[in-house]
DNA sequence: ACCTGAACACCGTTCAAGT
DNA sequence: ACCTGAACACCGTTCAAGT
């Protein structure tokens, strides 16, 4: 605000005398998310972040207590975007709503592989994580279960989402991320290794290798989620 | 083997002239697991491992390509212990067998918080992870489903297990691990924070805070697993 | 074939000093 | 109140040299 000043006419819009950098928690987290998206959790160093913000390393510590808290807060800030996606969710079927919320979470996490590991870790720190847990729980509360069942079912849905999403998210091992190898080539290579196994010793692997080779992460997630939700619906029906 | 020599009588059994350290992949992984159990993934540095093995840092690199592979292989070596626990599993109900296998996995992972993040990451490297995936898949194959359903259901079970186990495993935040704070105190503190929330804005949190405060990780896991397995049983029945 | 210490190129975090 | 550069105490990994 002290910077505000009317531009004098004709002067090119160059930054004038180099002032010292000024941040905010928002800009720090935004910078962190940019780096995370570009190069993953490994790439987010305090030095890299300070460089991007155009300041010194120590200034980051004014806003966060350390790297771990930075990761937690950066992840939580991204999670806030989910609420826009699920603003319209609210049908007369709680199970349908749960599916919609879970799929939105999956979509958000899956193309941010770094996100899965840092979401829903510290609800005291992570406001959006807490609100999402609350949102899911409110749908489960509509199913007519006991408090204990509500608690367990909500935790199961959340656990399944972040568990499998984190798992799928970390799948590509560096070479895929960097673009040296396509996802198809990567899957084909593993499928090849699996086909080389003894089919007598590995009947299941042999049985599903074709499915694995052409599988789609989103469909796989949706199928597993539907199994869980089917079990939940059953519990709900027998409770009435 | 060149070391072998008959002890001359009366001489104390001290190590004689200091010979240079000699390792094996097994001893390297065993040392790594010891450190991981004592101080978690963060505590496993190459230097700490080398010191425990009584050798130099660089010798570790003869057996593993780097720290990541060390973690992967250490995790997989622990996973091998599960097969003893599930040796007797094999009833006429595949769902019961799946529950037994999943619970064994949970029990193994839950008191080794570091394990969850490194299990089932690279089946080309991790033999036991592959065999466990196979073992679970073989049970699912008995349910009369299509290959696609078998693939999806097996992945869902595995995803749920490692997802929630990893989640529960990482729950205690340093202070609990070090023994400064008991689990009860930790849960009570969070419960206190939750009770301080506005009950109108957080009806679900308010509804389950009592359950959360006295919850048991194993029961919570079992309850979620049962929902998933109930959905799977339903799918199996409608397939026949 | 396997082990070694030293060196390299990084890290996260702290601190005394600035504005 | 917020930012800075330099310093500290670590890291993982490599390498030339040993046995």
Automatic annotation (TrEMBL), chains A, B:
Record-annotated HTH tetR-type domain positions: 22-82
One Pfam family this sequence matches: TetR_N
Chain residue ranges for the region called Disordered: 1-21
Keywords carried by this UniProt record: DNA-binding, Transcription, Transcription regulation
Residue ranges: DNA binding: 45-64
PROSITE patterns, A to Z: HTH_TETR_2
Record SUPFAM superfamilies: Homeodomain-like (SSF46689), Tetracyclin repressor-like, C-terminal domain (SSF48498)
PANTHER family named in the record: HTH-TYPE TRANSCRIPTIONAL REGULATOR RUTR, TRANSCRIPTIONAL REGULATORY PROTEIN
Protein name: TetR/AcrR family transcriptional regulator C-terminal domain-containing protein
């Amino acid at each position: 605000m002290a910077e505000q000043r009317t531009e004098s006419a004709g002067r090119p819009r160059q930054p004038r005398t180099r002032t010292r950098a000024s941040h905010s928690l928002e800009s720090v987290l935004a910078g962190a998310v940019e780096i995370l998206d570009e190069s993953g959790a490994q790439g987010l160093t305090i030095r890299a972040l300070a460089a991007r913000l155009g300041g010194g390393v120590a200034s980051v510590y004014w806003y966060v207590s350390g790297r771990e808290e930075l990761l937690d807060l950066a992840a939580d800030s991204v999670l806030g975007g989910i609420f826009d996606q699920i603003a319209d969710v609210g049908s007369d079927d709680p199970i349908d709503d749960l599916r919609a919320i879970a799929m939105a979470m999956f979509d958000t996490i899956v193309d941010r592989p770094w996100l899965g590991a840092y979401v829903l870790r510290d609800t005291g720190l992570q406001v959006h994580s807490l609100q999402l847990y609350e949102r899911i729980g409110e749908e489960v509360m509509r199913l007519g279960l006991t408090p204990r069942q509500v608690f367990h079912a909500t935790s199961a849905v959340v656990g399944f989402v972040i568990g499998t999403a984190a798992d799928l998210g970390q799948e590509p091992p560096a070479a895929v991320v960097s673009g040296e190898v396509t996802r198809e080539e990567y899957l084909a290579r593993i499928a090849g290794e699996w086909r080389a196994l003894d089919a007598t010793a590995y009947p299941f692997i042999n049985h599903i290798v074709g499915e694995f080779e052409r599988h789609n992460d989103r469909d796989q997630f949706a199928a597993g989620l539907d199994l869980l939700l089917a079990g939940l619906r059953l519990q709900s029906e027998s409770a009435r």
